User: What shape does this take?
Amino acid sequence: MDMSDTQDMHFDTQARGSRIVPTSWLLVLLAGSLLIVIAMMGWADLGMDFLKASNAKYLLALTLLAAFCYAMRDQASGRPRIARDFAEYVGFFLFISLLGATATYPAAAATSGFADAALARIDAALGFEWIDWYRLVVANPWLQTAGSLAYANIYMSPVLLLGGLAISGERARAQLFLFSFWLAAVITMLLFLAMPAVGPLAYIWQGPIPYMPTSALYQAELLPLLRDNMLGAVDLGALQGLVCAPSFHTAAAVIYIAMAWQCRYLRWPLLVINAAMLLSTPVEGTHYLVDMIGGAMVGLFALCTAGAIQYSLPKLRAQRKWRETGLWQNLTSSSSAAVPPAVQSRDV
Assistant: This one.
């Protein structure tokens, strides 16, 4: 067996092990994201009153979750371990969600123009008529209620998913979900900078609005204020969706469904819940169809990228340990010793 065979066997053994990322790595990633968002807020002259009740309640929730996780850090099994893991996952998810939504406000201040004309033309080429979809909802009040409830499932699905992963002890998969969600939020915000839009309700619909969906006209109302530095402060309790293209609800739904598909008891419930959310997204989220196609691509890309990174971790760790143990030095020194002195002198 040569050296490469020994190395491959060592890597294969490590690859079958855990792909759990140290919590400190996740904390560093989120701390870096926080510093970037703070810098963006400063550039856009946006502030935040941390003593305001609507802001303080989220900060208190994050603090309590972190304190609980620290107090239960030594629990390795049973219900205490499940409670600790669930609190940790929910804390990370809440932080990512708040940070991502907040980041869209200074990002909106950096945008110019609107991409609605191009987005509407693409929808027309795809044969999708947003007005017909909206009129169907207007004519059926039960669809309005069902749609608003389904659209809010962006918050229920992760609770179910993270709870299931905490119970089953699948920490690596929970981390994969959280990193995919974070990456999808980052990509969505970057694309938002290139494609700001007010949405089909503001751009296409003419006349009085018979039904005001969940997303209302927030893009059309807030984007001009942010561009003119007239908003002043961001309220965590009143965060509104500012991203039209791509649809983050769609990206999240793709991630939720993919992550739940390997959980036998969550697969079909989350598929149904998120299918309903996707059907409600054009009206409740005031999205073009192309927004949703773009969102699905973002979700798939985030999942594949996060999965590839996580898959490579065991091999990278094994390679680092292999080099640090001295085996590499021993093998290289042995190889050097096996070379005739004359050959070594010629190489020099």
The CA atoms of residues 20 and 172 lie 5 Å apart. Confidence is low (pLDDT under 50) at residues 1-17, 341-348. The chain has 16 helices and no strands. Residues 289-324 form the longest helix (36 residues).
